[in-house]
Amino acid sequence: MKKLKHIFLILIIMAIVFACSVVKKHSVSNTSIQESEHPFIYKDGIYFGTSRSSYISEPFWGNVYLTIENGSFTSISFIIRDSSLHETFTGEYKKHYEGNPVYIQQVINDWYGVQTYPKKLLTKQNPGNVDCITGATWSYNIFQAALEEALKNAKR
What we know:
It is a single chain. By secondary structure, the chain is an alpha+beta fold. 48% of the residues lie in helices and 19% in strands. Strand 1 and strand 2 form a beta hairpin. The radius of gyration is 22 Å and the shape is elongated.
């Protein structure tokens, strides 16, 4: 009976190792396909996209301006505007949350995201490879939604 348990345990471990290697091979091949096809996905030009993502009850709008040359992203600008206060979301936006350290930290995190996501896209050259920064999910979602809007007219 003990021997049967050991054999069963070995089989489970082998199955897990095999499953992990299959998943790893699959994800690597998908990434290389996306990256190799990238230069042919988008038309050259200047594009604009705006979106609130899923935050439709909030007055914040993400705006992405991007330039594509030779199929690559060469310039990206991303801002978030507060349509009720008529101001751009920056690190100084924390003044609206004085006395609330949780919201102040959220502003700091999301401002870092606003500054970082365009740089990551220029480096990665693939919207699907821009990872969300921990604590900056709000700005990430708005960036991705506005970027998607901008790229609708850029796709071949």
